[in-house]
Amino acid sequence: MSIIILGIESSCDDTSAAVLKDGILLTNSIANQDVHKKYGGVVPELASRAHQQNIIPVVDMALKAAKVNKSEISAIAFTRGPGLLGSLLVGTSFSKGLALSLDIPLIEVNHLQAHIIATYIREENIKPKTPGMPYLCLLVSGGHTQLVIVNDYLDMEIIGKTIDDAAGEAFDKCAKVLGFPFPGGPYIDKNAKLGNPETYKFSKPKIAKLDYSFSGLKTAFLYFIRDELKKNKDFINKNLYNLCASIQKTIIDILFDKLILAVEETGITEIAIAGGVSANEGLRNSLIIKALERKWNIFLPEFKYTTDNAAMIAQAGYYKYLAKKFVSQSIIPLARYNY
Ligand code: KG4
Ligand code: ZN
Residue with the nearest Cα to atom 7 of ligand 1? Predict the structure, then answer.
């Protein structure tokens, strides 16, 4: 009999449902929440209300597109955390209710591990190139920045992380200063392509070992722009491309300094990137260049699975299903969830 996993993601501002059959992705439906754009960041209360509105239509759409009847689902995998508690509660409660009514197992998934697992998502007739284990993964999302040794699908070790802001937050906060809507990372990426990354220099943090810090950079960028605007109120408009290229290069350089150190310390040269910021073309191109220089074997996730989606939750859920790692109805979501 086929193993059919329904994946549910609701950790932040995307409501998503995916259907995976015998390890092959059939559908991945996502409802984004435009409501946050004008606030310059995700408003937790609005996010949970939107999840509440979207979750049933999104799941219905995913099942219909996959031509799967709910009676055929083998198990439900949902994001337990980390994330916004009100958002997580919607996905968790929905998953518990549906699993109970269908009398099928429930699987909890760590959102960050799922971003890493996204490398293994397979569609019909498409076999992705996947890293050999153990490998190093640079996980860069809106809420987290981590260096992770992946020993197995469900066995991962964090060897470095940010002590304050995440790389995605640095992109988004600098983008906000430049006047872009939220999330601003993709706007910086797009405009950076037309600029000279060497135009402006921003100092890099001095943080011990394999940890990261991005809050100082964000503040330095804010003060720099504020001071330049005092001298010339058109400063941003006149220099937008160079500003985007320069701040993007600084963030990428910070990410690579520690990635290179991690490779030196672990001796692992199989490298993957994951999370929303791994969609960044500057980061991807730099990784390709570094790989050629340093003889790394690299793995870039497909663009569509870099940002939040339920396909990665279903994929992680599939491995947990095979390992029979199920949870009971007493499970609760965790806003902070280490692995
Ligand atoms: O992984 P994700 O979808 O959500 C979290 O789990 O946080 O990541 C969202 C983050 C946002 O900060 C967004 O600006 C960033 O990923 N992002 C990008 C790009 N696409 C998404 N940052 C830079 N360049 C991009 N192309
Ligand atoms: Zn995410």
Answer: 142
Give the dihedral sign, CA 154/319/82/123. positive
Residue nearest to atom 8 of ligand 1 (CA): 276
Residue 198's pLDDT is: 98
pLDDT tens-digit readout, 145-192: 999 999 999 999 999 999 999 999 999 999 999 999 989 999 999 999
User: Which residue has its alpha carbon closest to ligand 1 atom 21?
Assistant: 276
How many angstroms is it from 274 CA to the middle of ligand 2?
9
Q: How buried is residue 129: exposed, middle or buried, by Cβ count under 10 Å (0-12/13-18/19+)?
A: exposed
CA of 127 to the centre of ligand 2 (A): 23
From 84, 171, 249, 300, the mutation candidate for ligand 1 (largest count of ligand atoms within 8 A of CB) is 171
Q: Which parts of the chain register pLDDT below 50?
A: none
Domains of the chain: 4-127+305-322 (3.30.420.40), 135-301 (3.30.420.40)
